[in-house]
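Fill in residues.
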């Protein structure tokens, strides 16, 4: 048990850096998946278009995009913190 604690202590910067990289990958994927560049949302004026549904979808997409950016920032901060650990 004590050896495990020593191992975690001496490898703490590696563990935190790896967690930061993983969060950056997840955040980048969320941003890419919800990027407005991936969608063509131009409607040709069809009478059956539900603009309320489109607005709800856009709000959800923007929320996920914002969360992805926050995850990216948090992952980058973790990587910076890991540089200053013993």
């Amino acid at each position: 048990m004590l050896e495990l604690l020593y191992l975690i202590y001496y490898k703490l910067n590696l563990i935190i850096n790896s967690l930061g990289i993983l969060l950056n990958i997840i955040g980048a994927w969320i941003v890419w998946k919800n990027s407005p560049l991936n969608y063509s949302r131009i409607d040709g004026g069809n009478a059956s278009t539900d603009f309320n549904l489109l607005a709800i979808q856009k709000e959800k997409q923007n929320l996920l995009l914002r969360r992805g950016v926050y995850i990216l920032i948090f992952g980058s901060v973790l990587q910076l913190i890991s540089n200053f650990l013993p």
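Residues 51-83 form the longest helix (33 residues).
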